[in-house]
Amino acid sequence: MRTLDSFEPLPPYADPRVALKHALPAFRPAEKISVTKAAEKYMRVNVSGQWQPFRRDVTPYMVEPTDMIASRSYRGMAFCGPSQSGKTQMLQSALAYTIAADPGRVALFQMTREAAAEFERNKISPMVRNSAELRERQAQGRGADNIYQKLFKGGTQLTLDWPTITKLSSATMRLVLATDFDHFPESIDGEGDAYSLMRARTRTFLSRGMVVVESSPGAPLKDESWRPQTPHDCPPVEYGVLSLYPHGTRGRWYWPCPTCGEQFEPSFKRLRYPESADPMEAGEAAQMVCPHCRQAFGHDLKRELNGAGRWLHESAEFDADGQPLLVPIDSGTVRRTDMLSYWLDGAAAAFSSWRELVTQYRQAVLTFEATGDEEKLKTAANTGQAQPYFPRSAVSELEVTVQGLRDKARGMDLPKGVAPSWARYLTVSIDTQGTRFDVGVTAWGENGRHQPIDRFDLFHAPGDPSRVIKPFEVAEDWAVLEQLETQSWPVAGGDARLSAVALAIDMHGGGATTDNAYRFFRARRRAGQGGRWYLTRGEGGLNRPDRVWLKAPESVSQKANKRRRVAKDISILFMATDRLKDAVMASLRADDGMINACVIPEWMGNDHLTEFTAERRGEKGWAKRPGMVRNESLDHLVQARALHIIKGGEKIDWSHPLPWAEWSEANPYLMLAAPEEDPPDADVDQDADSAPGTARQPMARPVAAPMSARSAPGRGGWIQNRGRWLT
Fold first, then answer.
1. For residue 714, which of 322, 368, 485, 625 sits 20 to 30 Å off, Cα-Cα?
2. Strands (E), 302-410
3. Predicted TM-score (pTM) of this structure
4. Contact partners, residue 561, CB within 8 Å, separation at least 6
5. pLDDT band at 724 (very low <50, low <70, confident <90, very high)
6. Looking at residue 379, what DSSP letter applies?
7. What are φ and ψ of residue 673, in 5° steps?
8. pLDDT of 11-47, one tens digit each?
């Protein structure tokens, strides 16, 4: 039996003076100091790997917005600016002020849970750890320093959250901060927009409550014909920081002209540079032009002018023309609102040079002209210039119309089924339907020039002309596509013929379409033709990082909450269809001779041309117009462009082209002389506009030496073919 002496002695009583020392900061009144001064006094920032005191002169345009976070005259703030301009540093300054000078409950919202954790690791924790005053105030003990919650002496509770209705309900907070606001959902679980829900969380703090959101613009323009009605008016967008800007004070950053002294807003549109020059040379030559005296000056004055700059807001008073006056925030005549709003153009941002902005923009323009892809233009506008972007393909004057295509086709009288003399290779696009395969053939030449040269349907089952195929159901019916491997098309101006370098099959369809497509692909691979065939799947959305990519399919296991791969031996050609349709429409608008121009032949009838116009570009991508059913012409060109990209057609050096694109006997898909024997019949149903009895027959010939049959990965491999070597 243990005695009392055998137990460890109890720990000593806690010293009440220690507990009192920890509790007293909660009774300390708020320090009378601005947010910027608090940041200079208490916060350290990472400068090229070294932690140094915060300095306001690095980003002078952030001083006023930062200080106004503590204002009791306003309940909210929206700040729109380019990336890497100091927007996030403003939020960190607000945190330092709340921790060290005016303790209270503060929540910082990131766009996702993962982004919030990353922000804590890379921004918040290093800032607290390397700032002695903030580190001293951090509380100790369980739960005081977690990824999503941090407690500080004096009563500050910081939470790192993400926009869900749970996070934005019930809790009461004095200060709510949100970064990358334009990447938040437009509606939070159907309960409303994030800003309105955040305002509700601060309501009980009355004039002390504040909501601050910052972001680069991400929402597209809604109206291409919009014109500003006031000096600081904002174009209409449906969501994001610029949807809030018009409801605030409408502040813009102004510089005094170094020549005439008049104030003006520095903006990208006021940069002057030679557009005909190389992007780098254009960027290096960029100068800002004063709208008053028309004198230009260089980037070397930017830091000095930022130091002399100031924010001007729209006033409640008007000039003789009925336009609001522009006044400082402390003038007492700012337009009546409870929200502050600021919009900084990328040309004034401290961490980006005019050379970088112009170079980025000119490279994006060249990319658009070369590929038709607008993604880099959007990035240059949103993150570089801090401007909303209106897709060029959505401009009504630039919409593709049937009459416009008919006019473009005038004089292009090459017969159907004949490739133009400039053709260097062909691609075949196959749209899978319930009772047919819809086939389109596209000829490609130098610099992306291309033209649809054939269009037909495959209706009848192989070996049984009396039966209509059912690709969604019958796997054997897919064998009707095999003839496309050997089919060739004559090239105008000689006896040469071309066969397809690549063939794409759309996997979308009901029933067993996907399984039938896998089965067909594996069969073609065993026949040595796997390198020519692609199974395609479209992915909508304008924010896809790539236009095309190869990836094995995935599905969710029904037995466990984890992902497993299926058909591991097959790579699907995924297509960012909205981005590709932007490029296709740009090609349809381009005149012959321009990069990536699409030539429309006269043989395409109104039904085919109408299919090009079946969809319209909206804010979130392409969608069918009301009443439109068929869009195969558009889909064929999307698949053709995907094949052109994945095969490397955009990168061909035409002085030394790849073997499959050169005009020589080395090209396995080019027949320079037609064979003497008659071609065998093929089961091809021509379009109705072909004359009866004149249907072209495919020419059968070996177009590439077939590779030896190989087992698919995971299907037995080489050991199945080992012969008798073990005996």
1. 485
2. 310-318, 324-327, 339-343
3. 0.68
4. none
5. very low
6. H
7. -130, 135
8. 788 788 777 777 777 667 888 999 999 999 999 999 9
